[in-house]
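Everyone, study these two lines:
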Amino acid sequence: MIRGLVWAAAWLASGLIAAPAWSAAVLQCVPYARIVSGVDIRGDALTWWDQADRQYKRGSAPKKGAVLAFRPHGPMMLGHVAVVSRVLDDRRVLIRHANWSVPGAIEEDVLAVDVSDGGDWSQVRVWHSPTAQMGARTNPTFGFIYPAKARLHDFTPDPALGSSVRFAKLDADYWDARQPHRSPPFHGGIMVAHGRPAPAKTTRKMKPRLEADPGVMHYADASPSERTLSAIIADVKRQSALN
């Protein structure tokens, strides 16, 4: 765990993402999710759920290609959107998203787990790549937005959308329900996992037990918890221009 935190701190300080990147023009979750999912919605992530009404079907069941819309929560003031790349079982999916663990970073096929009491995906925990474990915070969501065609589209980095780096790409076969806490190895700064047996089915009523170090919370979002009002306003204006 300590090694993971030291690695994350070193990566953040390495110059790949400079200190001002918290509010600089880095790739946001919205344009990434729009391109990968094909769900043609613009504007801040917190508005996607309402905008999808009468444009797309919505629901609480995960499906490949669907957009998982997160509610604003804590430092995640503008919400978040991620794309389901694979459904493992009723409680676990793999997602592709940007600007989560590190500003501007793209994380592909990483784990998201339903930890809600009712099994309705209203509360989730998300994989945190810098520390190679599940994030410590529980994140509330609106639900899933389903595109007209369930298809994952390739994302090509575009400077016009902000600077980005592919921070993690995991082998979709890595996630084994019998070893939910085992971390994949690192290779060259990008996580790669070796194939494992297909995950065992779990029932909807089972609530996963996840372990996480509270220290993960220091790295779990793309925005720090304490920011000036001027910085927040500048970010909103910048995102509006990109969206």
